[in-house]
Each structure stands twice: as C-alpha cells, then as structure tokens.
C-alpha cells in the first residue's frame, strides 16, 4: 500500500508512473488537482486494484481525459459517503472495465437512500434487490462485470440512467 501524505495537494503527470508493484493507493485528503493527460499521474501502475480518495472535495482533473486509463487491474475507487454522488459524476465515465466507485465508510452491500438503491457494493453474481426499494438509481450497478442476474422486486417503479451500464456479464433481469 502506498499512502500519500496529507500535505500533498497536487499530483503531476507521471507522479507514480510504472510503480507496478503497488496494489492500493491512498491519497491524502487535501489532494485537489490530478494531472490526467499523457502520462497521467497513475500511468502504468499495472497492479493497482484500489484508489482511496478520503477528501470531501473531488479533485480537479487537468484535462478531460481519464486519470485511470492505464489501470487495467483497478477494481475500486473508494470515496467518502457524503461525496459519493460528486465523485461519481466526475469519475464514472473514466473508469476502466470492471472498476467501480464505492463508499469508504459503508460496508453494506446495498446502499439505499429514501427508497432509492444508490449503490450495490456486493460481490455476488446473482443479486436480489431488497423489497421496499422503489427505484434503482443512476450508476447503481455501473461497470459491475461480475453480476449475471438481477431480481427486481415489485416495489421498483423506476430504473434510472446507466443503472446497469457496462454490466457486461448481465444476461438476466427478472
């Protein structure tokens, strides 16, 4: 695990380039700027499975390109619960296949807020959404390449944008 100290506020191009043995990277909570052009700050960190962003504010990206594009082993980008939607809006489209954005301080499989399934953080291939959920939120399962089947309860009346986007193994919704 590589932990970036709290005093660091900016990650420049190639900052961790080629650090192929690092599996987990925890940024300091004050990182507010990430260089995201060739080579991006995390370029070629081939073993990196998890990036932790503990800061409440989403870092600014230097360009409109992915800071995660070369991270082929990336599974999770973990962010604070209170800032989940902001990180999701900023980073979701930049994730490589199979990588997901999750909540740091919440180990529950189903994150439900006011009846809306905001996020599924579980690892099951076959998922049964809990009764009482009224909507599946945007990006709730996004980029989950493990799920093959989802059972939706009768209480669900809406499935929002990209709820199942890039779920490449999903073959059955009932």
Described by strand count, sense and barrel closure, the largest sheet is:
5 strands, parallel
Unreliable parts:
none
Q: Distance between termini?
A: 40 Å
Q: What is the 3D shape?
A: elongated
How many DSSP E strands?
Answer: 15
Averaged pLDDT, please? Answer: 94
Structural class by SSE content: mainly beta
User: Which bin fits the share of residues in helices?
Assistant: under 10%
Biggest sheet: strands side by side, in what order? Answer: 1-3-5-7-8
What's the total helix number?
A: 1
Task: Describe the overall structure.
The protein is elongated, with a radius of gyration of 17 Å. The longest helix has 8 residues, at 84-91. The protein has 174 residues and is mostly beta strands. The protein has one helix at residues 84-91; strands at 2-3, 10-11, 24-26, 33-34, 50-52, 60-61, 76-79, 100-103, 110-113, 116-120, 126-128, 135-136, 149-151, 158-159, 172-173. A five-stranded parallel β-sheet has the order 1-3-5-7-8, with helices on one face. It has a four-stranded mixed β-sheet with strand order 9-10-12-14, with no helix packed on it. It contains one helix and 15 strands, in the order E-E-E-E-E-E-E-H-E-E-E-E-E-E-E-E. The mean pLDDT is 94. 28% of the residues are buried.
């Amino acid at each position: 695990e590589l932990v970036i100290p709290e005093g660091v506020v900016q990650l420049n191009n190639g900052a961790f380039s080629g650090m192929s043995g690092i599996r987990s990277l925890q940024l300091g909570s004050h990182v507010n700027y990430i260089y995201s052009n060739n080579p991006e700050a995390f370029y070629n960190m081939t073993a990196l499975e998890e990036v932790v962003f503990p800061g409440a504010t989403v870092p600014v990206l230097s360009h409109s390109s992915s800071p995660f594009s070369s991270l082929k082993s990336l599974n999770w980008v973990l962010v604070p619960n209170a800032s989940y939607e902001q990180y999701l809006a900023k980073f979701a489209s930049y994730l490589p296949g199979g990588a997901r954005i999750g909540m740091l301080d919440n180990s529950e499989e189903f994150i439900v807020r006011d009846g809306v399934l905001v996020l599924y953080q579980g690892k099951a291939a076959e998922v049964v959404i809990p009764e009482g959920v009224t909507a599946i939120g945007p990006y709730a399962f996004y980029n989950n390449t493990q799920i093959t089947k989802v059972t939706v309860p009768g209480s669900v009346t809406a499935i929002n944008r990209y709820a199942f986007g890039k779920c490449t193994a999903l073959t059955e919704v009932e």
